[in-house]
Amino acid sequence: MAKTGGAAPREGRAGARDRVLPGRGPARAAVPSTRARGRRPQEGTNLIRIAYQARTPRASGAEALVLWLAEGAPAPRWLEAGLRRQVEQCVRLREFGGKPGQVVLLVSEGGRPVVLVGLGKLQAITREALRRAAGHAGKRLRGLAVREAAAAVPELMGAPRKPEPRKPEPHSLDPRMPDLSGGLGEVLAEGLLLGGYAFEAYKRPAAEERDRPRLERVTLYDPARATGAASVKVGVARGAAICLARDLGNQPSNAMTPAALARHARAIARRRGLKCQVLGRGELKRLGLGLLLGVAQGSREEPRLIVMEYRPRGARRTLCFVGKGITFDTGGISIKPALAMDEMKFDMCGGAAVLGAMDAIAALGLPVRVVGVVPACENMPGGGAIKPGDILASYSGKHVEVLNTDAEGRLILADALAYALERFKPDAVVDLATLTGACVVALGHFATGAISNDAAFQEQVVRAGRRAGDPVWPLPNFPEYEEALRGKTADLQNIGPREGGAITAGMFLKQFVGRTPWVHLDIAGTAWGVKGVGHIPNEGATGVGVAILVDLAREA
Ligand code: BES
Ligand code: MN
Ligand code: ZN
């Protein structure tokens, strides 16, 4: 039996067990303990396992069945007559029309639940439409009291379809990919894992829920061989890594301290055979990462610089990924207003995306050297905190006047970028950060903003985002935007005018990357708070960025 996909999530689970629990010292006491009742409090998710079979699900005996159907498409030929009639009746009664995002639950005569999920118009089905439809299936299956489900890979390949434009146009109105070639199993497996995700680490189930069966495995049945086990494996590796990034992001800041984030990085490295080095305050001082140290100095939590390296034999290119790891952003002395400040626990989602990407890239054994760097600290207004007007010496040698202590992300990233470029000399570097509220204002929640110093590399990243289903939208990088960052008393100041804030923040980072091809991704709008998308939970971290980085590494 061709079984894929089992491996990565199973490892994910074992990994979750040996993931080091966060919080030694004072933070620990604040984390409610459910351990006494037999649950590990910090474990967010139980990933479902995904398997693949190149045959019909007829004889599978699974407790539930998922059917993805396009508008007006007939039920598959292999479906038993009784169920086929039920599906037809649903369509006739206008209960189900195959519209995107439509989900209808049937119960077969034998008492089996059948989840119908709409794919939209056949000609318009994209990778993203399938990922979302798979996500809807995952969400619906989670709510059912079943352990195993069968899902039928839709038969789309024979359908007349719009061809993929030869040269992708990044500024087209919908930059998502109509091309499905080779990727059907990938997006279905990934969507199922992502839709089946929920962060329940600190919620005890109601009494009547405690013993009900929970979804453990979904098998993709593919009688037409529209996809294959290898494709499913990619989707599983990426989906599991995105769930891992979500787990890291969703943890509260008292559990996900800089030290805890570093321990998670170590656990991933151990599981995947990566190198992992974690620098603490002493080493950062010796090396001179004054911007990272400066931001960290208002907190009792020590900063960390996490450095992970995946180095397969024979790799010729080196990619470097740098992720913002502010485990909580109060704003520091330039303190934020109270409204929704709790959301600033998500300020390490860039770092989480880097950790997730390292996990998936190593799991897939991609033939490229990848270095992941995460500067991690809290931004707090303690007695030792930096104050507006303070001047810090960066790793690069440039001095920075900190006019607003809430513009801290660019400070820690500037040091991490300069350090990573000098030490690893990568061919290209991507940074990811929940960097500016201005980016949320500009782009909302459905596109990640980009600033770059290299049009060709930016095009590659945009393309990876299109494949990955995490759309990336370039912002202008004209030199006029840089001028506002020239310091009055130091080389640079850390803020520009309020207008165009997402751009100036990116242009600040540009001062620290030299000539290395670089793309900055502002994920402030896309890292959490995204609603109504099939494979994304309506609450909490999305895991944005992981898929972009993995697909970029696949193409490198
Ligand atoms: N982490 C925030 C950015 C942010 C705010 C992300 C809201 C998502 C939602 C960042 O550190 C920050 O505070 N940026 C400031 C910059 C300003 C002081 C120039 C901002 O956006 O207000
Ligand atoms: Mn801030
Ligand atoms: Zn921040």
Task: Describe the secondary-structure layout.
Blueprint: H1 7-18, H2 26-30, E1 49-53, E2 64-69, H3 81-92, E3 103-107, E4 113-118, H4 127-143, E5 148-152, H5 184-195, E6 217-221, H6 229-250, H7 258-272, E7 275-279, H8 281-287, H9 290-296, E8 304-310, E9 318-323, E10 325-329, H10 349-364, E11 369-379, E12 390-393, E13 399-402, H11 409-424, E14 428-433, H12 437-443, E15 448-452, H13 455-468, E16 472-474, H14 480-483, E17 492-493, H15 501-510, E18 518-522, H16 546-555
Parallel strand pairs: 1-6, 2-4, 2-5, 5-6, 9-11, 9-14, 10-11, 13-17, 14-18, 15-16
Antiparallel strand pairs: 3-4, 7-8, 8-11, 12-13, 15-18
Helix pairs in contact: 4-5, 5-6, 6-10, 7-10, 9-11, 10-16, 11-15, 13-16
This protein binds ligand BES, manganese (II) ion and zinc ion.
Ligand BES is lined by residues 329, 347, 404, 406-409, 434-438, 440, 495, 501, 524.
